[in-house]
Amino acid sequence: MTLINPDFAEEIERFGQNTALECFNCGTCAAICPLIYDHFPRKMIRYIQIGAKDRILENAQELWRCLHCGLCTQTCPREADPGEVILGLKRYVVANWRRS
Ligand code: SF4
Ligand code: SF4
């Protein structure tokens, strides 16, 4: 079961700039991402918006497939900076592993 946590976006701010709330879910980043599968990175950004931290941790291995090519950030019409958000999520996942 996914727990909804509206405060999660604030929680991850200390791991990097969090612009996920700017995203309006258009899908442009998922369409241009060379990893195009299963709506990456859009779905990760959506998980932040609804505070689904368990989904992020369960799918954490996907974050390390990101090439940091920056294409998603360049094409996002909302300046939600999805590439940078993915980097912040990596830091968040590593911090959680260290605590566990
Ligand atoms: S391109 Fe930007 S606004 Fe569109 S889904 Fe991706 S992050 Fe959200
Ligand atoms: S930076 Fe990562 S998420 Fe963004 S388009 Fe490149 S591979 Fe995909």
TrEMBL record:
<dbReference type="GO" id="GO:0046872">
    <property type="term" value="F:metal ion binding"/>
</dbReference>
<dbReference type="InterPro" id="IPR017900">
    <property type="entry name" value="4Fe4S_Fe_S_CS"/>
</dbReference>
<dbReference type="InterPro" id="IPR009051">
    <property type="entry name" value="Helical_ferredxn"/>
</dbReference>
<dbReference type="Pfam" id="PF13183">
    <property type="entry name" value="Fer4_8"/>
</dbReference>
<keyword id="KW-0479">Metal-binding</keyword>
<keyword id="KW-0411">Iron-sulfur</keyword>
<keyword id="KW-0408">Iron</keyword>
<protein>
    <submittedName>
        <fullName>4Fe-4S ferredoxin iron-sulfur binding domain-containing protein</fullName>
    </submittedName>
</protein>
<dbReference type="InterPro" id="IPR017896">
    <property type="entry name" value="4Fe4S_Fe-S-bd"/>
</dbReference>
<keyword id="KW-0004">4Fe-4S</keyword>
<keyword id="KW-0560">Oxidoreductase</keyword>
<feature type="domain" description="4Fe-4S ferredoxin-type">
    <location>
        <begin position="54"/>
        <end position="80"/>
    </location>
</feature>
<dbReference type="GO" id="GO:0051539">
    <property type="term" value="F:4 iron, 4 sulfur cluster binding"/>
</dbReference>
<dbReference type="GO" id="GO:0005886">
    <property type="term" value="C:plasma membrane"/>
</dbReference>
<dbReference type="InterPro" id="IPR051460">
    <property type="entry name" value="HdrC_iron-sulfur_subunit"/>
</dbReference>
<dbReference type="GO" id="GO:0016491">
    <property type="term" value="F:oxidoreductase activity"/>
</dbReference>
